[in-house]
Design a protein that fits this description.
With 111 residues, this protein is of the alpha+beta class. It has three helices and six strands, in the order αββββαββα. Strand 2 and strand 3 form a beta hairpin. Helix 1 crosses helix 3. The N and C termini lie far apart (31 Å).
Length: 111
C-alpha cells in the first residue's frame, strides 16, 4: 500500500518552514526528518507514524488513539502509529505533528 499523498501534503503544510527539514521515503511511506531525525511520516500502512519520547510512549498510548509500532513482533517504544480516522481533522493531525517535531528537535542532529 502506498502512502496517502493528501495526508503527506497536510503534514507538509503544518510543518511549514521547519529549519533543517528533509523529506525521505522510508517504511513504505514519506517521512519528514528534522536534523536527520524522523519526526512524523505518512505511513504506507495508512495513517501516520510518529516519533515520540520513549518515556512518554505509555502515557500517549493510554491517553490517545495511538498504538506502539511493532517491528518483527517487537514493540518499538517511542514509535507510534495513529490510524487515518484519528488524523482526519487539522486539530488531530496538528497534535501529532507537534509531538513528532518536538521530539526530533530535542535529538542531536545527524550529519
Amino acid at each position: 500500500m502506498a502512502y496517502n499523498e493528501e495526508l503527506a501534503d497536510r503534514i507538509r503544510q503544518l510543518i511549514g518552514n521547519e529549519p533543517d527539514l528533509k523529506e525521505q521515503k522510508m517504511f513504505g511511506g514519506l517521512a519528514f526528518l528534522i536534523g536527520g531525525n524522523m519526526a512524523i511520516a505518512a505511513s504506507g500502512q495508512g495513517g501516520i507514524l510518529v516519533r515520540a519520547d520513549p518515556a512518554e510512549s505509555d502515557s500517549l498510548v493510554a491517553s490517545t488513539d495511538a498504538h506502539v509500532m511493532e517491528m518483527r513482533g517487537k514493540q518499538m517504544r517511542g514509535w507510534l502509529r495513529v490510524d487515518p480516522e484519528h488524523v482526519a481533522t487539522k486539530r488531530q493531525l496538528t497534535k501529532w505533528v507537534e509531538v513528532g517535531t518536538g521530539y526530533a528537535r530535542s535529538l542531536p542532529a545527524k550529519r
